[in-house]
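BUG: 3D viewer hangs when loading the predicted structure for this chain

Environment: internal workstation, default settings.
Expected: structure renders.
Actual: progress bar stalls at 90%.

Input used:
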Amino acid sequence: MFDVQDIRADFPILSREVNGRPLVYLDSGASAQKPQVVIDAVTRAYAEDYANVHRGLHTLSSISTENYEAVRGKIASFLGARDPDSIVMNTGTTEGINMVAYGWAMPRMEPGDEIVLSVMEHHANIVPWHFLRERQGVVLKWVDTDVNGALDPQAVIDAIGPRTKLVAITHMSNVLGTVVDVRAIARAARERGVATLVDGSQAAVHMPVNVEDIGCDFYAITGHKLYGPSGSGGIYVRPERFDEMRPFMGGGDMIRDVRKDGIDYNAAPMKFEAGTPGIVSQIGLGAALDYMTGIGMEDIAAHEASLRDYAIDRLGGLNWLNVQGTAPGKGAIFSFTLDGAAHPHDISTVLDKRGIAVRAGHHCAGPLMDHLGVSATARASFALYNTHAEVDALVDGLELCHELFA
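Structure tokens produced before the viewer hung:
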């Protein structure tokens, strides 16, 4: 049984006050708070078991290596991947996408080759492809959302042409909460011999994910949105794609042998994990994934759907509030502006005085802001620890903003 009050008790930061008010944390889309089990796992790793991994034969190194490598299997299980060795562990989605850009796309794409993107992409899934546009003459093809913020998968599929080499698409918009049918896109792309990369940063924390069912070639996640530490994450790589990739960082662990006249690379996934990794951060991510799966992703999704529906109802009663994105089945993420003189930064500041944390700005989604015709929005993003009462607190705070700035 999902009991949100029991869940909230697991997160020590939620008991604090901000500006003399109980904290209402509605910025999990940027970075989620951490349960005590994650904090304990990080503390224990440093206090009791810490040593470098893979290269040591002493007891602490063996323990640390075992705890670190166990996370690879946890990520694989969390994403529905059959083989733990299909997971490259890294600092998060940004590194994962750059690995694909430098290691897979750069050596195989020529001037005029195409990458299909949606207008909803986070900059982490845009900027690496601009590098290829600038440096190799790759063409970026953009697919817009409809007026509700929904992305028609057929429109993405129709954008695939004879020169398309990759579709790079978000699973859930960090601005609109729109959920994309990545399964339909990935399967159609595969039929056309085109690879797919899915940015799972937002989706993986809110819903069950199965990369085998989706059929994508790459699926990237980031730990700090999954209730884990910053600097943790991973990317699923379809095993046959490893053979098409070159390493994009060199150093320890990713080699078998180094000589004056050459090197022999390690096998994947180690081939793509250069240097001392974020040992403790990854161990913390493993604890976070255990925590989420212990609750149940279906139960988490159901709770957040209830929050979403309640927020839609409450926010819909504010006729001076402009909510960006109303696609059916969206996640519990709400970006908005107010009629009148209130800038999103003003909204965030007023809400903060009431202990309510929301995001304000372009949310690393410049093309989407241009598409929506706004320079910035305020964003409230909900998580498994939020409550209906916190939706009410947000609405009360927005009513105050309207009074101040109308």
